[in-house]
Design goal:
Chain lengths: 221, 221
């Protein structure tokens, strides 16, 4: 059976993984005959946000322990990712991707990937022709990891984030939250999800279901 | 347009609302032409659990701020619930229901509802014939609030929780996670969801989609 790794970065869209996107990805994956393993760094988040007030709390939280809330405890430290081969990688979005896993939120196109095993795995998967599905802001992390690889990707509407991707040599395609963009050459599938802040949840699920379906098709060919 | 209130109690199945059940309920509701408002108590959780280690952390967290992670900030304090009339109530599960909203986890059939506005609203909705949808362990809270009302409900397999419900005068029906039980007399719809710990996520979604569909049908009749 083919296996897919899902990378999380916390639990909550302002400081970790976007919860609904993560659940949508797991829900869509459960409709296919694939094994799924969830990973997150066993490291502190860069920030903790009160999601009611929208303000930073000054606390610290561990990404692995927080992401375990979404994973119902069935999760491993990101450092274990390289110990096994996965046929594909899926990354939900949320500010955690752009703040905890890389520095895209602060540094844009000059940002760096903060975990060497993540950079290594993305690079290895790409060069092996194994597909990557990236949701919401996660395509920006893939764009940083694979700078100069001339990726095709979507971050929803064409704004600042898209401009940063062009600086890295990639091409941005506008999409709606129920749509995906498929880069056949690089086996990268992307969907904007909550890049559209007010997207209805069923529309976000529709886009993510398409993304997962396409990634699974790519590994079952 | 009909309006439905969703009650949360945190963010994580060991100390708050079960995340996947909450997201499933919101996803299912988004497929109907209804208004949805999310509430949680602006009060500390009774416990905070590390969901990776499964151990208590000793920290405190606020239910409203944590549930706001699932609600993407669009949430109100539970104290506001009584200020408006809702056509129906939906309660996802998770230990938060049995620990933060009532004392069922510790006290079983002799437990109490911890928020008077919640007890008031459940009682008022029941006596007005407005439907309630309760997921996972949430039927136990409804059972406590409406003791002696001879409810029909499901908590999945017939175990200790079902026995506590019988002590309160209710009847328990065994169901699978893709099934619902409908109590037409009391307009109570229940589904076990993660009462089956290892239920596949798409099966849990199937049960919750049926529950939401039935609650919406009841208010649109």
């Amino acid at each position: 059976m083919k296996s897919i790794a899902v990378i999380l970065s916390g639990c909550g869209y302002l400081d970790g993984s976007e919860i609904r996107e993560s659940v949508a990805a797991l829900w869509a994956l459960s409709q296919h005959d694939v094994k799924v393993k969830i990973f997150a760094p066993d490291e502190p988040q860069t920030i903790v946000m009160n999601h009611y007030s929208g303000k930073a709390t000054g606390d610290t939280r561990n990404m692995l322990a927080e992401a375990a809330r979404i994973a119902r405890g069935k999760i491993e430290p990101l450092s274990m990712l390289s110990d096994h081969d996965y046929d594909a990688l899926i990354m939900p979005g949320g500010f955690g991707v752009a703040k905890n896993l890389c520095t895209f939120a602060a540094d844009g196109a000059s940002g760096t990937i903060l975990y060497k095993e993540l950079l290594y795995d993305i690079t290895a998967m790409h060069s092996d022709g194994r597909p990557i599905g990236a949701i919401c802001i996660a395509p920006a992390l893939i764009g940083l990891a694979l700078k100069g690889k001339k990726l095709e990707l979507t971050l929803g509407a064409d704004g600042n984030e898209a401009e940063e991707m062009r600086k890295l040599g990639h091409t941005h395609f506008e999409t709606k939250p129920n749509e995906i963009h498929i880069d056949k050459t690089n086996k990268l599938v992307t969907t904007p999800a909550y890049m559209y802040d007010d997207a209805p949840i069923n529309v976000v699920f529709e886009g993510i279901k398409k993304l997962v379906g396409e990634v699974v098709r790519m590994i079952q060919r």
